[in-house]
Amino acid sequence: FFEQSEGSNTEIQLEASDQIPGLSSSNCGSASYNKKFPWSPNQPTEWWYRYADQPDSNSLPRIKEAFATWSKGANRCNSTLVPTSFKSTYMGLTTLALPYNDDQSSANFGACKSPGSKDMVGWAVLPIDVLARTCTTYYVLFNIQISPSRSSVILSSNTNWYASLDVTGCTGEKFDLKAVATHEFGHVLGLDHYTHEGQVMTPYSDFC
Predict the structure, then answer these.
(1) Residue of 14, 89, 100, 15 lying closest to 53 (CA atoms)
(2) Residue (of 67, 79, 55) closest to 120 by Cα position
């Protein structure tokens, strides 16, 4: 992340990049499972969908499902569903530009920009080994967050996605859109990476 001074306030932007290679271990008991970033999101999280370059018409329903997952939660160790206080509201479609530099000729290609007027989920060209990126901005004053965080999720338009509503059909060299979107929305909520295979917040993903 980088910090940029703005008078007595500090704007902090974080770029969470999520990549492709897999890991080789799993652990339900590590304390690092609870790693968090130092921000709190707005409640409910209101988001808009930028549909340009989406892989197919099922993309938005899968993304909505991913958001809904965080409203119930699940413990991988025993599959217990845990109700949460998180709520999200889908606000509709938008054609606004994402807060992301997709100019491949730019030295800042792949970097987050300052947030616009809406928090969005959308598609753009990402570096070849990156599946998705969450761009979050929050403001602090004397180390106290003074406004809810702003987050947009950018999904790779140059990735071979599986977006069907039937998750059992996910095979071959494709990446499960719902799984990756669920991970990114964990960042929106303020969750950091957890580096064990099989957990939703692992920073890596294999094919289906």
Answers:
(1) 100
(2) 67
